[in-house]
Batch of 3 targets.
Target 1
Amino acid sequence: MINLIFYFFAFLAIAAALYAVSTKQIIRSVFAMFACFFAISGLLVFAQSDFIAIAHLMIYVGGILVVMVFGIMLSQKASLSNVVLQKKSISLHQYLALLACVALFVILMYFFYLYGPNTPIHYVGSDIEIIGIALLTKYLLPFELVSLLLLAAFIFTAMVTRKNKNL
Amino acid sequence: MDINISHFLFISAALFAIGFYAAIRRRNIILVLIGIELMVNAAVINLVAFANVNTKANAADGKLMALFAIVLSAAAIALALAIVVKVYQYFNTINPDQIEEFKN
């Protein structure tokens, strides 16, 4: 039963990602990414890391995708239902990209098959405690640095998008 | 309940390949960003899955690396979308093939 839920999340993640990169309307691909990120955070729960899963759900589904919808609304003049990607691109480019993608997948699976571990994931207890202790002892400096970088990135974002400032 | 780690490797390889396809197909800047996000997510799945393999090592290492990767990709996506909005105001398109020059 639990394994069935895992396979459902795996199928949902891959199918939603495939739909997102293959659909013609860009707003549909963003909404497919909602399903994909939700399934990925479900998979992270199965990898025995609850805190990462909740953080992933909040940051991606609650933050990044909403920002992406705003970006689409601000960068397309037509109404959202009519935003269609141009079809006129060279099809050779598409086939080469597809070939490179399949080749990358095959190479990755080959090396995982050769060298990857084949052990089940053990449950070592809730990860909130070890993450909290590690963040305030061993990883204190990277934690502070990444928070400073996030602040700098958001200040820069607000500066770039100011209206009375040329590019 | 114990899921084999090779299943996670398969899912992350598939997601990475799909994201790579979206990134090099580049029909639209937003789709390129979505592809990059998919690749980051594949890496996060791998990091979290490998964090639990060896129980004797510190299990927080892989998880914290995944957390930092999520934070950095959030910052990158915010910056990239701001630049996308500016590029649209300047060029009136966000198709990468139609943006020819960056200097006026």
Note: Helices of chain A lie at 2-22, 26-46, 50-75, 91-115, 127-136, 140-160.
Target 2
Amino acid sequence: MLRFLLGRLGLLIPTFFGVTLVAFSFIRLLPGDPLDLLAGERGISPERKAQLLAQMGFDKPLWQQYIDYVVGIFHGDLGTSFASKKPVLDEFMTLFPATAELALCAIIIAVCLGIPAGIFAAVKRGSIADQAVMGTALVGYSMPIFWWGLLLIILFSGILQWTPVSGRISLLYFFPQPTGFMLIDSLLSGEKGAFVSAVRHLILPSIVLATIPLAVIARQTRSAMLEVLGEDYVRTARAKGLPPRSVIGLHALRNALIPVITTIGLQVGVLLAGAILTETIFSWPGIGKWLVDSIARRDYFVVQGGLLMIAAIIMLVNLIVDVLYGLINPRIRYN
Amino acid sequence: MTNTSPAPKADTSRLEAESRNATKAQLYEFWYYFSQNKGAVLGLTVFLLLVLMAVFAPLVAPHDPDIQYRDSFLVPPVWEEGGKAAFLLGTDAVGRDILSRLIFGARFSLFIGVVVVSIALVGGIVLGLIAGYLRGAVDTFIMRIMDIILAFPSLLLALVLVAILGPGLINAMIAIALVLQPHFVRLTRAAVMAERSRDYVIAAKVAGSGHLRLMFKTILPNCLAPLIVQATLAFSNAILDAAALGFLGMGAQPPTPEWGTMLAEAREFILRAWWVVTFPGLAILITVLAINLVGDGLRDALDPKLKRS
């Protein structure tokens, strides 16, 4: 197992340095230099520009800039936001819980609905119910989620007026946020109605973000279950007279879940990409909206830092999924 | 001995005829399995209709997509109160006919799909063939680069690339193609690695085929099935990503009647004019759904494992 783990880590290290290289190159590849962009039409005097460039280390040779950048990363220095003048890492850490809360809720919805839907479709293979579930899953999979979000806003916020259009909680509430997770903080605050307000704000963005992972998990569960249901040991379990519930729930599902776990792990990238759109539509103050806004106002150190952090999170989750996969499926470990 | 010389010629023509028949039989077999999947046939029909609509857009569209009718701002669809027969799906905030813009928009979406898939497919096949055939350091180098691209969420990387290249449809297409490419590289490489030690490849090598011939003429045709399925998936992903970039203001720029850009323009009217938001999104959904249905059908028809069951 240790060898397997070390092997996976060994693959990750060059990829991580590659990612730092991409993030490093990003600012250097932009047309013009960041200071000109920042100065805009007002312009900047050559002396002041040289001074600022030296301050940011842009006057050094490229290789040295890269080494400084990587050393900075390991010291938690991702640069400073042009707009807020705050360190990028601090901003990231402040906003990340909002995205994490949204993504966690979305993946919980996706798993809790997707796996049962997939099992149901597999067990009822070929029936109208199977076709209906899989048809719905395909529609979900094909959904432009930015449009889906707008439709839900029209229906639930516009016509029915059940949910708010934007934000994480009503402006009426103000309380300390020790965890950054609004659901938990609103409960801890003890303010009446705060938790309900947080749930009402969270529900639509979570549904929108869950849509594609839900469809993918349902489809994957169905095909994994179908494969397993045809195996000899399932036939044996049935022949022994075990009730269908335990054949499906115990014998088939456990093995079918192995590829599904990988699929769930792979959804992290989908969730973070989806967060960009979902947060923009619902004005959700998370990483996705922060990055889109930063690209729009050319706050490039933020984009660079966000890019690196998101890639690092995805790589970390993929590593955890790989290790989990190796733990539950020994064949992978020994190959 | 005298009648030995014409024999190879006869053999060649017979072989050619046989191979033609085999191709025909394969096509029939493919269509048989594909047409078993009713959803796939429906998807293909819708897709072909969309292609026809895009090609003949100037003939089909009732209005010019860019003309602003100053007396008809935000006219609702014809079946709603206040709707006008001249504007079946209503007009947008500056009085342009939504139906005509959607019809012309099909051109952009299909064009985006074709261009992105072509770039990603060609690049992916070449890199995947090289990696899988040569192995060693070249393989490691190519695959690590692909791992790096895959470490970023595709939309984020596309957004950043567009920030570098500048907003616009062409740059968005290049960015999306680059982001979708690693999937093709991985698939091609895996297929090539599975094929390269097969007897027919070794036979071709022994017969003196060069590296390029082995890669492109001997091995590649036998790796095409998964690539075709992936290409349809990439086609729908390209349309979705380009629409998302358009929606975020980084793709096609107004007044281009691209569906994502239309949605972005419509956002501020969302609570008072539902039709300006609903129809462009529906057009994206129908197109992507049709292509995904075709993709599912192709996968079923091309996957030998499914055929046996």
Note: The two ends of chain B are 51 Å apart (CA to CA).
Target 3
Amino acid sequence: MGKRRNWYLTLGLVLTGLTVGFGALGLVWTPYSPTAPSAADRLAGPSLAHPFGCDHMGRDVLSRTLSGAGATLSIALAVLAIGFVVGVVIGALCGYYGGVVDALVMRVCDAVAAFPSVLLGLVVIAVIGPGKYNVILALGVLFIPSFARLTRGEFLQYRDRDFIRAARLMGVGGLRILFRHILPNAWPVLLSGLSIGFNNAVLAEASMSYLGIGVIPPDTSLGRMVSEAQSYFVTAPWLVLFPALVMILMILGAGLVGEGVRERMGEG
Amino acid sequence: MPKKFKRALLLLVAAAVLPASLYGCTGGTEPSPTPTATAQSGEPSYGGSVTVGIAQELDSLDPHRAVSAGVGEVLFNVFEGLVKASSDGEVREAVASDYQISEDGLTYTFTLREGVTFHNGDPVTVEDVVYSLERCAGSENDGTALITAFSNVTQVRAVDERHVELTLAQPSLEFLYALTAAIIPAGSGDTIAQTPVGTGPFQFVSYAPQDSLVIQRYEGYWGQRPYLDEVRFRIITNSDTLVMSLQSGALDMAIHVPTTQITQLEGQFQVVEDTMKLVQALYLNNDVAPFDDVRVRQALCYAIDVGQIIEFVGDGAGVPVGTSMYPAFEKYHMEELAEAYPTDQELARQLLAEAGYPDGFTMEITVPSNYTQHVQTAELIAEQLSQVGITANLVPVDWSTWVNQVYEGRQFQSTVCGVAASDMTAREMVIRYVSDYEDNFINFQDDGYDQAVAQAGSTLDEQEQEQLYKQALTILSEQAASVWLQDLCDLTVLEPGLDGLELYRTYVLDMSTIYYSA
């Protein structure tokens, strides 16, 4: 293929692989229990036994970062799944068929998109209560408009192309045209949308947990850890350093992958 | 490629800045160049204003209707009763200059103090006093007493222009303490929550719900003139924000600062340590399964390690209580009850098995999220309970939800919170668990208990009363009405120049003695 390496993609894949692997590991294994307190280790600095140090209750920060990354990751992926699947279906139908329904749905999307997603998420959470699954639901729904809009734009663009007209004339069914003929052409844009969406989902989860309405303690997530570490910012900086670092790498990785994919697809 | 490079750089910066913006507000927590706290005992000076951080929303400014102890704590500066609390746990005369109690303990006669005026300038008359006391007894509430002790009142009567006479249905050693209830202008019941008018050292200026309450010195105050011109209470429900506001200078003082936060403030501020004068417990709803079974409640008591909670949440500075009484009531404090349930997971499992839960169960702990201490306690409890097979899920709620849903609605399974006495009597801490008492939010039911409390309330023999209260407190422990934890360590943080803080035996904050030392 290409003469020169796609550094974005390579670096992005490495970072994403590492952070996703880190989070996935956290879901199944941690060196210590992430919730077990220990009086002797309160606010202990990084050491061999506890490479990331210990928090104010003597809980191992590595274990907590692992399980927190797992929680953040799974929430982000679930949010993305809801937003992407529903968004693509809505966007595809609206873009391809158009009409009154399209106009209506898009105005609703405009209205939802007019508010910052975290703000809307706060409102939803205030109504249905905090907790992991409610956050997934709230953010998932709020992520639908951006994917719908993106997909609609792509489908609108292909709707009247000759190969689609030809397919229509041959009597190909609507669903088949939508998902076999147009969707593959829309992938490059959707993929980079997906990577941006992943970043936004990670950040949104972190923001919600940071504001104390996401994951409920003693469960943890990266945002929650950063929030709790705030009180010890000066005295025990490792509490905020490690979860924040994992979050930054996670976002950076996905961002680079998105950029790399776009470049590669663009080069054809 | 410059264009590509720029894009990469942008991405990097974006990735680094976005999460940073999450905790951006901590960016400025470098110790501000405030002079370090030195032992100050300079001369008191008049003037100046102080901004005090408080953690709790105020549910009402009506002194007779407010539910939270946090309201009474603040309104102590605005309202006074015929008598008011003094720092040694007794009462001293306030609106009344003198009082007499009849031999049989049924009739109280108060002499009004000369020259006491309301903040609107009107002198306090017997009509105002009669109106206020009748309102406490329920005249504006369909006859249900707003302050429970007043349900014992049969008649309030103005004898002449200076004397008021109160008649009780049953003699009571403790009724005098209930007369700390605020005296308000006659007929002001409908407006008192919007424009509180009292006789205290400070007068109400403004109140912005969930934001701040401002009071200023009342120049016509009958007693010792307060030092400060103005006090602003700022409601900051997040303890991190509280600390940052102190560091940035937005606050001059904060009360009930969590122990875990204090390391950041030491050296720059004066920290005064005391106990909170409340009972923190894992309150169990005795009406809801599985806590309707005494064995389950006892199992929880054995499973929960109070020592560990005190160590983690209060740096070891809290005091274990073991029942619904805190140590400031020295007379009734029973140390042996604090040791009634030594941590014993085996015994806990055994009791659970006997009760039909050999594999444990799942429960909910509702916790007011504005109190870091309670949230951390609940976290530890969840961890400790998991050791005996019980899965405890935390349900964080804001303060007003807690008051509505848990305290008044009793719609909860268990909750971690602190309960204080609204006046200074031990009775307040005990009567709330009488079966049909309106604030018995844990639905505790025990005939022996009800009897002991009823007898204690009507006896005029102090020793007998003490015995009966101790008996009642022991029942609370034996029946494991809740998992009694501790009287929390209480930290008050003051700017170096501030002095004169007087610690009370009850849940009040007296701003009138605080001054800037010259």
Note: The mean pLDDT of chain A is 86.
